[in-house]
């Protein structure tokens, strides 16, 4: 049974999540403070963390920093902070996803399933990646969509590889820029958008969109 740690000081929202997780056969623990949450992450060892940023003792971003210093456990932020800068900061620090309150329980459960599948399917030693119609051979850098090989420029391929190695995870503009050009600046975001547009054009033969845009935040490869 998958274990979820809820870090949420609003008991009404915490109880709503607990009922949903019981119905979907998840095990769970609830922390209402950041310090208690950090202890439970070590003792309970959850498969996924649901994190509110506005905690009474620690800002949620501090928890993301601490957890990411030693763990890759998926973190889904569920917060009332709806400003893009808050989303970008949390995602840049290592959060896997960001949902703004008020939220749909069905959406939260869907995001949890995606994050858990991504963890279950990680195969570090494998050179072959498959996601729906997309197949990538990381060794030869061959890319096929619906069994048709497509040609990508070096930058397009790097973008696709980073997205595929983080399938289901929202990647910020800054993260993508630094992954491709280490000395990139925020002013390079228009160039990133151009490369992303040409990459998507080449992926259009897929039955369904492979890359989702998060306006003013970044991009996510959809998990099939």
From TrEMBL:
The modification 4-aspartylphosphate is found at residue 52. One of its GO terms (biological process) is regulation of DNA-templated transcription. The keyword Amino-acid biosynthesis does not apply. It comes from the Bacteria. GO terms for molecular function: phosphorelay response regulator activity; transcription cis-regulatory region binding. Residues 126-223 form the OmpR/PhoB-type domain. Residues 126-223 bind DNA. This is KDP operon transcriptional regulatory protein KdpE. The lineage of its organism: Bacteria, Bacillati, Bacillota, Bacilli, Bacillales.
